[in-house]
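Handout, tutorial session.
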Amino acid sequence: MSSTALVFAGALLLSGCAAGSDTGAEASADSCEVVRVEVRDISNGAQNAILTASDPAELQSYLDGLSERVDALGEEAADDSAVSDALDALDEKLDAASDWAETLPSEADVEAGAEIDAEAQSAQTEGIQAAAVKVTEVCKAE
């Protein structure tokens, strides 16, 4: 499923750059819109998954898949250093969240009374959200 999403996102990015007789600014704006939509989807998905986590391994796998999507966007945005840097920062936040997911109690532990640290959980979602906002701020037509 994530491979299909990556292929589709890549096709959208390329179509934004190669659309008809668009000027460079219009193509850049189209590409940025694709990046913004993809980053918003990634950010929302990560935050929702973190807030509803019940299986640490599934959460870690899901976050790793989101990180791969960000990597693919970064490859497409390699010619814009500000966007590339912002995507790298988002990828770092997703990696940190994936590492944090390893520390979560299992579903059985939660049933036995273990709790997820709400402050750490909130810090993960806030970090991802802030990094995603930065991507949307720097990705604009020149």
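The second record follows below. Compare its token runs with those of the first.
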Amino acid sequence: MNAKRRRLLLAVVDPMLEPGEAVAVTSIVNLSSVSVRGTAVFAAASALVSGGAMAVIPVPTPMYLAMTDRRIFVFRANPTFARPEEHLMTIPRAGLVRTEIKERVLNSSFVVSSPDQEQGLKILFPLAGRKERNAIAAVLPVAD
């Protein structure tokens, strides 16, 4: 994450922090993935509907992630400007576990979950976000 994006994210997160809490890691992530098959079907359907004039490919909305020693904050990123648009969720870090890191050609990911929750949150990191991914993965234990 470049310095301008980090500065704008920290300006939004700082008022939400508790006394003694500080941001340790910031990153640009995606919280949902679109399967290759689903993308191909969607593109084919949009081309068919438009008479072949265009094909639309869905792209996940980039998110800002800020992690402290206590919580993980997620904000929707404005795709045009560098600022965070909307606070989506705050997740307490206590008890969180993750899966092994899945490496891909253009990105990597792992699923973060809590033992008392049935669903997890899949976090996808761009290729350039390996340093941040490793910092987040280092503090979350791998699920058994």
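Points raised in discussion: The chain has a mean pLDDT of 82.
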